Structure formats: structure tokens, C-alpha cells
Q: What sequence folds into this?
């Protein structure tokens, strides 16, 4: 178990716990906007997992995927926030 | 302790700290009482957590030409996180997700009232 393995195992455990808490809020969230924020944090965790994979396997192939994942998270939450306030015309 | 291992230690420390940022955001999401405080915790991993992760990737990759791309990825997140938090907060305030008892002082109410008053004149 080199130092890299220990760190990546630790990061995996921490991110799993973070994802569990976020999914708990995603399921329980009383209102739609709670779920939007929880999905935003979940996408940030997915981005973090991508970064951990890049560090562990010594490549930087999915840096573009990380940018796209974070932008999709942003677009999703802005769209929902935009449309939650509209009166049902 | 050659120079390479020092860099490795720094990269792995950044990685673990970035993961802890996401954990703190998840704990904030679970424990905070109402939506606006949860929103405060929600943007933590996007900006600082991602920054730590990207420094770890930059140090591990060792290629200086990756740095601009990583900075671009981070600046995108830096610009978009406040905008999405603002939009969600505005939608939350407008659509009565607000719990008055958690607020100390609500400056926005008089601004909205004044705006409404000017509109109706």
C-alpha cells in the first residue's frame, strides 16, 4: 500500500460519505430547490471523483469531462431556479 | 525525501482536503435547518474543493501546459457557482421557501415592498 493508495482510498471513503449525505438530502429535501442544490453538490462530488481518478492513474484525459460536468450542473440549477418561480400560466 | 516525493505528498494532501470539502458540504446540506443556509454549504466544494483537486491534478501531471486548462476549469466554476446560488436564492425567496424565524434581519423585504410600491404608482 503506497502513499498514493492510502490517500486515494481515504478520498474514496470521504467522497462516498459525502455522496451518501447528499443523496439523503436529495431524497428527503422538502422542496424542489433543496433537491437542486443537492444535485449540484452531487455533481461536484462526481467532478472530485474524476480528479481523484486522474491523480491515481497519472493521466489528465478527462479534464474536459470535469469542465462539462460542472457546467451541466450549473445549467441545470439555473434552469430549475428560473422556472420554479413562474406562475402556472 | 527527494523533491518528487515532496510534490507527491503536497498533491495527496490537496486531494484529501478537497474530498473533505465535499464532506463538509454534505454535512452542511444534511444538518442545516432551512434552504438558504443549505445553499451556503452547497457552493463550498464547487469553488475551493475543486481548486484543491485541480492543484493535485496539476502537481501529479507534471506538465506545465496543463495549467491553463486547469485554470480555465476552475474559473468556469468560480464564475458559475455564485450565479447559480443567486438564482436559487432568488427563487427560494420569491416562492416563500423562507422561514422567517431563522432570519435575523430581512433587508430584502423593504426593497421588494418599495419596488412593488413604485410599480403600482
A:
Amino acid at each position: 500500500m503506497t502513499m498514493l493508495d492510502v490517500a486515494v482510498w481515504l478520498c474514496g471513503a470521504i467522497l462516498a460519505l459525502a455522496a451518501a449525505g447528499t443523496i439523503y438530502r436529495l431524497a428527503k429535501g422538502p422542496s424542489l430547490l433543496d433537491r437542486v442544490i443537492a444535485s449540484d453538490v452531487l455533481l461536484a462530488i462526481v467532478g472530485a471523483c474524476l480528479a481523484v481518478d486522474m491523480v491515481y492513474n497519472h493521466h489528465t484525459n478527462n479534464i474536459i469531462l470535469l469542465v462539462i460536468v460542472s457546467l451541466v450542473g450549473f445549467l441545470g440549477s439555473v434552469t430549475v431556479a428560473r422556472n420554479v418561480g413562474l406562475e402556472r400560466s | 525525501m527527494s523533491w518528487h516525493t515532496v510534490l507527491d505528498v503536497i498533491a495527496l494532501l490537496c486531494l484529501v482536503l478537497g474530498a473533505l470539502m465535499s464532506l463538509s458540504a454534505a454535512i452542511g446540506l444534511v444538518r442545516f435547518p432551512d434552504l438558504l443556509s443549505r445553499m451556503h454549504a452547497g457552493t463550498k466544494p464547487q469553488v475551493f474543493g475543486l481548486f484543491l483537486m485541480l492543484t493535485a491534478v496539476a502537481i501529479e501531471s507534471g506538465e506545465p501546459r496543463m495549467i491553463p486548462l486547469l485554470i480555465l476549469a476552475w474559473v468556469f466554476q468560480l464564475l458559475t457557482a455564485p450565479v447559480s446560488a443567486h438564482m436559487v436564492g432568488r427563487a427560494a425567496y420569491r416562492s416563500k421557501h423562507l422561514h422567517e424565524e431563522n432570519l435575523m434581519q430581512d433587508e430584502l423585504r423593504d426593497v421588494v415592498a418599495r419596488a412593488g410600491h413604485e410599480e403600482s404608482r
In short: The helical segments of chain A are 3-28, 32-56, 63-84. Chain A has three helices and no strands. Chain A touches chain B through 49 residues (CB under 8 Å).
